[in-house]
Q: What sequence folds into this?
């Protein structure tokens, strides 16, 4: 699969980066409200960081390339 830039992927990825950034910024309030409090602060922060990384991959339209590579690696296609 070749790399091809897409404006739709860029805006979708930037929206996901924004959501992930807000999760990282307000991780304590989110963990207190939705999870079990102090014991899950690091889990919520990790989820936010992974969301930011996923959003950056989507914004640069590299997610389909990475997923194609991963599927070929696992299934030997």
A:
């Amino acid at each position: 699969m070749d790399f091809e830039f897409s404006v739709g992927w860029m805006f979708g990825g930037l929206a996901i980066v924004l959501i992930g950034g807000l999760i990282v910024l307000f991780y304590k309030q989110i963990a207190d409200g939705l999870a079990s409090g102090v014991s899950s602060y690091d889990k919520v922060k990790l989820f936010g960081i992974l969301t930011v990384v996923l959003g950056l991959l989507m914004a640069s339209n590299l997610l389909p390339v990475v997923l194609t590579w991963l599927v070929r690696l696992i299934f030997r296609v």
